[in-house]
Amino acid sequence: WEALAPVPTGRESSGSCVLGDLLYTFGGKDPHYSAATEIYDIRADRWFEDAPMPVGKAWLSACVVGERPFVMGGAHSWEDREGYNWIADLHEFAL
Q: Which residues neighbour 65 within 8 Å (Cβ) at sequence distance 6 or greater?
C-alpha cells in the first residue's frame, strides 16, 4: 500500500465512479448529508472540488456511461422511525 493525497472531507456512504484518470466522489454523510463533489486526479495525486449536487444525500449510487457520470437515488434525511426519506432521482454531472 502507498499513501496518496488524503480525501479532503471525511465521510461515509458517498458514491464514487471513475472517468479516465479522475475519481469522482459525490455526497455522503459527515455527519450532515453532503452535496459535495470532490474529484481526485490520479496522475497529479491531488483533489479538487467541483459543483455540488442539487441536494445533499448519502447511500447513493454513481456510475459512468460512455463519458457521462450519473448519480442516482440515496437518502437525504431521517423521515421517521420507520426509515429514511429515500430519493428516486437521477442526475447527470455536467463536465
A: none
Which DSSP helix (H) or strand (E) runs through 52? none
What's the average pLDDT block by block, 10 residues per block, for the chain (95 residues)? Answer: 95 96 96 94 98 93 96 78 71 86
pTM greater than 0.90? no
Q: Specify whether the CB–CB gap between 33 and 9 falls below 8 A.
A: no
Residue 18 DSSP SS3: strand
Contact 57, 69 (CB under 8 A): no
Burial label for 25, CB within 10 Å (0-12, 13-18, 19+), is: buried
The two most distant CA atoms of the chain are separated, in Å, by 45
Side chain identity at 27, as an amino acid letter? G
CA angle 93, 71, 21 (to 5 degrees): 60
